[in-house]
Amino acid sequence: MSQQNAEQDQTLPDPAEMAKTYAEVAQRASRIITHFMEKKVKEGIPPPNDELGVARAFMDMSSRLLANPYKLAQTQMNMMWDYFSLWQHTTLKMLGMPIQPVAAPRKDDKRFKDAEWEQHFLFDFMKQSYLITARHLHDTVCCVEGLDEATQQKVNFFTRQYIDAISPSNFAMTNPEVFRETVKSHGQNLIKGLDNLLQDMEAGEGQLRIRMTDTTAFELGRNVATTPGKVVFQNDLFQLIQYNPSTEKQYKRPYLIIPPWINKYYILDLREKNSMVKWATDQGHTTYIMSWVNPDEKLAHKNFEDYMLEGALTAIDKVLEDTGAEQLNMAGYCLGGTLLMTTLAYMAARKDDRVASAAFFTTMLDFSEPGELGIFLDREAVAGLEERMNERGYLEGSEMATTFNLLRANDLIWSFVVNNYLMGKQPFPFDLLYWNSDSTRMPAAMHSFYLRNMYLDNKLKEPGGITLDGVPIDIRKVKIPCYFISAIEDHIAPWKSTYMGARLPSGPVRFVVGGSGHIAGIVNPPAANKYAYWINDTKPLPESPEDYLAGATQYPGSWWTNWNEWVTSLPGGAEQVPARQPGTRALKAIEDAPGSYVKLRLDTMKKSA
To answer: What pTM value is reported for the model?
Structure first.
């Protein structure tokens, strides 16, 4: 045998190993399918339903399109002319002539970053053919005459999901990077990818749960949620964490953060270099944060009022009791911000002035324009969601996470399909995506109240629209200084929607538009020197968000420093006291941060309660 043949043989996979791998994959696949089918037989196969009204929306759209056959034919002819142009351009490119593309992806479209999408005529043809089809398909359905706005939004959204799904980048033989890897590894990437797929199916007990990161690379308290502190209080709904001081003196007013309860609190304490609680502590704030419990059916009865009384108000009581301060500064993130403003309105009605200032991170108060989330939250969809919640007593966090991922499917779904299943790679360790995968449940009663009163009926913005603990809630009675930070690319709480809510309280308001999206726009430490933020200090705030942004001034870097300057410049905001050590005052230490609630399920937490 020649040396060349010997070298070739060494690069070929061992047939025995391949046979073993195929057998293991087949056995695992069979086991998963059998388990899934047995589970479905026990549960019963539910009849097909269309809670979101997608089928009705597309039937309505189709009937209206067919009512104008001339326009539809014209659209088809325009697409065919683009195809003719593409064929001509591709022929010229094959002959070596430089030619401008008929269709080009956006500069931020990561799907077509590989050089061969442009350099190889075949992959370039597939890419442009897809882009032409996608553009004409979108243009055909995006503005159908006679469709109401809600139906049009559904058609646009689910058409985009279809367009994203059929991208040539999502298939092994039409993605140049995957094709090269398949040839290079003799198909081992696809075998590894199938193994990754089976692992994700096993983790989802028969349903696909795509891993976005290497979850084994992180451990709470070791390389995420690492800021030292103590749990100093807990009840059925939350643990209260106080962080160790890092300065000799601290501001007299303590700082309490209310995170959302759809994910764990440590989005604000990922690693030392991007931890907001660590940064706030380093600035001299006595920082507390609420770590919400992950509820099961035992807390099904807990409602929004309980989250206010037993959650936010109890935390305020305990922080002031522990520090001896008369007032505190607060912040609320997303849903936590909605709860915070509701609590402030409740306190204002009862003449309770213990909160000196409040900051709101990507917080919606006026839900009249909820963005694409509204597609999933019409009355029929909410009724179906309530039926499922009432059976279990809670909403499973993964269900809401899937909805959020669909809003950015190319980044949060299809990129991982390509990496994990086609390239056969393990997902990259990324703390932000580790947190994103760590979703929590929500009690049925609380979530139903929130969806119906906020998203569906938009009652929170109305004076007395909702009543909690016998108190009509009126945001206009909130007169304390408020700081709103929203993100210009936010797809969950669109900044123009949060802007409308910022105009509701009657006290002094600073509204800030930050760069990036719902998470990266908030978790933006000054040391990173990324993005920018915009402020328009016109008083009162301009009526429209467009007018606000047109008159705003851009500042480089992180909004964190701006908030710190704002909060410490308020009357009494700069007063300092000796540093406060957690567990040495009125509240005693229960355990080290990050605490057990962020790690364990409710039924295993009772032993430490």
So the answer is: 0.86
